[in-house]
Amino acid sequence: MASLSVSIYILCVLKAIIYSHLCIMVEADHFGHEFLLDEKINFSEIDKETVETSTVAISYLNLDFIENSTGVVYHKMIELGNSIISKIREYSISLPILLFLGYISLNNISTYYKNNGTPSIIQKEGDPDVIIIGAGIAGCAVAKGLADTGKKVVIFEKKLESNIHRMVGEFLQPGGIKALKQLGLEDCIVGIEEIVNYGYAISIPGNQSIVLNFPNTNEGVEVSGRSFRYGCLVENLRKKILEHDNIQVIEKRVNSLLEYNDLVIGVNYKEDAQVEMYSPLVIVCDGSFSRLRKKYIDNEPVTNSYYVGLILENIVLPHRNYGNVFLTDPYPVLSYQICENETRILIEIPRDYKRKQDAVGYILQNIVHQLPIYLQPEIVKAVRTNSRIMPIQELFPVAPNKQGLWFLGDSWNMRHPLTGGGMTVAFKDAVLVSKILEDAPLDSISVRKSYKSFLDQRRSHSVSINILANALSSVCSIYNDNTKYTGILRDALLKYFYRGGASVDVPMNLLACLESSRYVLLYRFSDVVFYACWKDRIFDRNWFGRFYQRFKLGWDIFYPQAIGERYFR
Question: Distance (Å, rounded) from C-alpha 230 to C-alpha 129?
């Protein structure tokens, strides 16, 4: 037993010696970073063999300096560390003291790097404060917000000519309009043949409709959203950033990101030759089909179904100036005007029918006959001649695996399009990013802390919008495979809306993105579920089974969304 104890002690001592040497070296790194302020030289004076200027990386084979975020280089760090270790060896410090030093060093250095992250890489004069990849909705909005705070922004877009007929980003909720005003971009949705929308109208086949209005403000001001052509909005946003003095727009494709250890330090793009640009912060906004997401985000979009998008000309919807939702089986059909003579129709189909030929056959056989009779000929014609298919993707937000790199917009977070909340989340994110970075220094340590603050504060608006969109699409759908949902909660939701008052106003405030409390969302969703249980209160031997079925249906819808959005954190 004694020999075993001695063996364990010797192993612990050897481990402590190794830890002590390693930690003293890293402590010297930190000490040199803070102490040798008087030993500074310009980056241009450093031996070119020591520094690979193409990547601004420090050569570990000849490491004799360390830099801080302002571009000043400190040397003699290794000399300091080696002198400490040589003194330890020279005076043969006893093993107990080595154990103590190793323990203290480990705790100190782990705490330091946990709180402060990786030291900053050098930023050369003329480099931008922020690089943004993608000049779409999110990219333009965050560029404008940051530039207004005085930040120097470079934004990359491979093709500035926008796609007028893109079938996403055509409906903006009142909360999104409010965010646009905060960014100074409210005039971008004016003069583009925009349509004013006052809420939603739900049409039940063979039954009457329910009209749900956005509630007016406490001051009696009318609340409304807007629908428009996506390309018209993007063109106006790009005009704004092209006119801004603090924004440089480069019409090139970014090939890759420049990395240094766990830090992203810039981008690589091609003009006549490969060009590198450095920045302490790179923000990726390259859309739902992001090229960079797979490498830097440990999460992939989930596609459960597809939208078939149609444009109908010169038709009148049952409720003008409203988003019209037709509760067809198995998925609802969404429609709204995007200009005076064009109406968008979005028909959701199962993922097994994603090929165009299969999608056309599915719609003609299963969906068209459930829609209003006067729309059916136009829909049949559009499905056969001018339809487009896009995936309906859900993507929960996950932090990138590199520091100095942020993702925004659909490249990072997507929800079901039924509620039209995507652009609103993007604009609210842009407002928040601009606010957080307004007075923050742009070095790697500050950027890391700012990103943590962004993630914490963002949840106040994104969680309720995302969960509401995904949960509402599930409630309004009837899944035929394995009868997973049987329309019970959908019927309960309609009866809940028939009550009027707060049963309509509060959910519509959430839908309008004017109320963002996740607790209000949970309360209202629970209220619908329990209302479904209460309306079916026939107290027989099967009553508890029916109650459990409805409760479990609601829980199965809400809980996965809450976990994905980190609702409970």
Answer: 29
